[in-house]
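@channel anyone free to eyeball this complex?
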Amino acid sequence: MQQPAEKLYLEDLCIGQRFTSETYVMDTARIKEFAAEFDPQPFHLDEVAAQTSVFKTLVASGWHTAAVTMRLLVNSGLPFANGLIGFGGEISWPRPTHPGDILHVESEIIEITPSRSKPNQGVVKVQAITLNQKGETVYQMRAKLLLFKRTVDVG
Amino acid sequence: MQQPAEKLYLEDLCIGQRFTSETYVMDTARIKEFAAEFDPQPFHLDEVAAQTSVFKTLVASGWHTAAVTMRLLVNSGLPFANGLIGFGGEISWPRPTHPGDILHVESEIIEITPSRSKPNQGVVKVQAITLNQKGETVYQMRAKLLLFKRTVDVG
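replying in thread with the prediction:
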């Protein structure tokens, strides 16, 4: 949960700016618990049942990988001063996440659109790629986030 | 966890086919727990801190809403015989989910693409809209899913 010292505002960002998160280990028990609550399918719940699935082995729910990615972004991956407030975006899972996988997220600012109506706001599009310990992409997201300018105290 | 009696295969689906899930109540404690693990931001964790955020009140993590949507789809929303295996898609959160909200998911088949190389497979694009008890959309997803044809036993 180490935080970068400086938190960034809208005017601190530029296209092509990159960020790297810390790592997170996918735990088998947590994979099964998450799946039991949110994605109760055999290939997320049980090693034996997973053998006869298209995955051939136990894999994490894609939504677990997505949630872990958010954790990594919030805690270390994107040091935005007002937090990470998303409107939505595109997501994909090029390959599954497995028990024991060590994930981290590499992000890049790909678009900055200042608000026309609200001069202290803007929408920033970020590409976040979640990689496993082999450097393989397990999850990719392009998301639009709400960013604010540094408030100047006129009091 | 009531399941429709009949599970559907690729050849059972048609464009415009619609499905409705059961309901799920967003619990305050679970909203905070999910956020503490995956999206630890003040507006998801604490009612008082949320008052000074852009949301003005405690709201669920968008990833919690996404995960609950998956639960609803798996358990009752999309009765696909081989389960729900997604490649990815587009997601958005038009408005936040609040404690006590009662969610359900309305889905529609919007595209069916048979595989060129694998005759027993196809990719089905589904639009899933998650609504609260007021009929407001809190989450929308267009996702591509892997579907299989009914296997004909030639033994």
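from a first look: Residues 62-77 of chain B form the longest helix (16 residues).
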